[in-house]
Amino acid sequence: MKLIERYILRRATGMFLATLLPLMAIVWTTQALASINLVTDSGQSILAFLKLATLILPSIIPLILPFALVIGVAQTLTAMNADSELTVLNAAGASRMTIIRPVLYLGIALSVLSFAVDNFIEPYSRMAVRKMIATAHADLLSSVVQENTFRKIAEGLYVQVAARRSGGVLHGIFVADSRNPAYELVYYAREGAVDENGSALVMKDGEVHRKLPDSNVSIIKFDSYAFDLTDLTKMAGEATIRAKDRDLFFLLDPDPKDPVYEKNPMSFSAELHRRFTEWTFPLLFALIALVVSSDARSHREARMHPMITALLTCLFVRWATFYAANGAEESAAFVPVMYLIPLATGYLAVRQLIGNKRLEIPLTWEQKLNEVLVRLRIAKVAPASDGNQSA
């Protein structure tokens, strides 16, 4: 690699990292805060929250990488053009490949990284997150019981406690159970605790009110009563593993007896094709950034900022592939579209670069745009050409 290529690669990489880290921090924070209720409701330690937040991180990397790259490349080349570095390269006889080659190296490396994260690391982290959430939901004391708050455990079943003490002791227990349409049960207890197996809520020194449909109420006092939680904890402790949570090998050969696969086999097919297409986005977006910003232009030339043009183009491509991927879950006709969009975009970008063409607005469009800008007083009227103007 030539010295100037290493220079471009170093600048583009630095700008890419400067864009990636803040974007990742923002998205990661929003995703982590969305799961903070699991920790606050359960009273778990900060380590549990950090573990959950860390497991969320691989799911956002493939989404952010391509956009951070297109911003980094477009901004780097725009800055080089503003400093007349691209003009100097052209005057020195350097080919356009001198600029293209280091960006392609960076795009290929990030595409390989995206493929590895999307197919091997992210499925593992998603599986771990779902199991962690399912385990927490299976623990009534951790996920449901909260001081001075009515919590809905299941349809028709609510629990509230006045206070939690050390050793898992609960004070002021209230349980409302209306799951059986034949009667309603309301439990009051001075204290209690969930047993070691999490299968029962053992209440002490309380009473149970049984209300019949005819409004008759019977009251029974008890010294000790075990409220069965077996069905609830068993149902809550089962993690639902979806297509996005599966690794590449499972998607290539799914288990026909998998309950989720039996309900919606098209979602597994769509997920497989999504992983075979979206990992190319870093390279594809790098090509788009090169088309928009790799040619030397005069400072006097009026045009939209290359980074905005590149971002809008990439957002459209990303939206189109996202739409096609969602459609593939319902119809196999969208599967070819998932491959056609990146292939067509890549072909047009490569053709533009090989032909050494400049990305310009057609003259008629440019004239109409200038007329609109003049009317809006955003641009000035172009000076008259040489020669006398007729009255």
Walk me through the structure:
- By secondary structure, the chain is an alpha+beta fold.
- It has 2 domains: 3-137 and 240-375, no CATH class; 145-230, no CATH class.
- Helices cover 59% and strands 14% of the residues.
- The protein is elongated, with a radius of gyration of 31 Å.
- Residues 384-391 have low confidence and may be disordered.
From the structure above, extract its key features.
alpha+beta, 2 domains, 391 residues, disordered C terminus, 6-stranded antiparallel β-sheet, 14 helices
Question: Could you outline the blueprint of secondary structure elements for this entry?
Answer:
Blueprint: H1 3-34, H2 36-42, H3 46-82, H4 85-91, H5 97-138, H6 140-143, E1 151-154, E2 157-164, E3 170-177, E4 184-194, E5 200-211, E6 217-228, H7 230-236, H8 248-252, H9 259-263, H10 265-278, H11 281-293, H12 306-328, H13 335-354, H14 363-375
Subcellular location: Cell membrane
Transmembrane segments: 48-74, 103-121, 279-296, 308-325, 331-350
Main location: membrane
Give a nutshell description of this structure.
The protein has 391 residues and is α+β, with helices and mostly antiparallel strands.
The amount of helix comes to: 55-70%
Give the overall average pLDDT.
82
- List segments where confidence is low: pLDDT < 50 over at least 5 consecutive residues: 384-391
Q: Total helix count?
A: 14
Task: List SSEs in N-to-C order.
Answer: HHHHHHEEEEEEHHHHHHHH
